[in-house]
Amino acid sequence: MKATNRQKKLLKFFHVDFSTNLSSGAAGWEISQIMAKFENRKLWNSYLYLTKDFDNQTDELMPVDTELIENTIVPDGWTSELSKSDFMFEVATEIVEQNGPYDLPEPEVVFTDHTFFCLLENLNLVREANAIKSHSNITAKWLNQSLQK
Fold first, then answer.
1. Count of the separate structural domains present in the chain
2. Second label for 106, Cα 20 to 30 Å away, from 2, 19, 48, 129?
């Protein structure tokens, strides 16, 4: 298996030359040697802190001043995992705000030849739902009428 883009990105950050057919195992071994040194972990975390470069679509590094990386103090308690989670949340929020994941107008969804049961707080509704021997939709009209009883 070939090295991942994340592995290649880290190797590039530390100026490690590698071939295009580098295996993930060889990359992992090299990375473990690099990250065994505290100073290297500090530099990599500074890079991630400054750039928020959590993308694995490409092995290209984001542009950032080397001197800035070396002089950056990463706040206590900061981890790339938490920062990545925050970053992904920001991306998802942006997509939702742009109505990205939703179909507008909402399409009609029809299930035929299926019976769906749900747990309802009102025991009478549960009994009614269990009594239905339907192979078509349970309509919202029936549910609304039952809730009004």
1. 2
2. 129
Domain that holds residue 63: 5-97
90 inside domain = yes
Q: Report phi then psi at 2, rounded to 5.
A: -75, 155
Q: Is the pLDDT of residue 109 over 70?
A: yes
- Amino acid of residue 30: E
pLDDT band at 123 (very low <50, low <70, confident <90, very high): low
Residue 102 lies in a domain: no
Which is it for the CA torsion 19, 60, 51, 66, positive or negative?
A: positive
> Who contacts 47 (Cβ-Cβ below 8 Å, separation ≥6)?
13, 53, 61, 64, 69
Q: Which residues have CB under 8 Å from 35's CB, separation 6+?
A: 41, 44
Torsion of CA 47, 52, 54, 57, to 10 degrees: -100
Tell me: do 75 and 19 sit in the same domain: yes
Amino acid letter, 50: L
Separation between Cα atoms, residue 23 and residue 7, nearest integer Å: 10
SS3 at position 65: coil
pLDDT tens, position by position, 22-35: 999 999 999 999 99
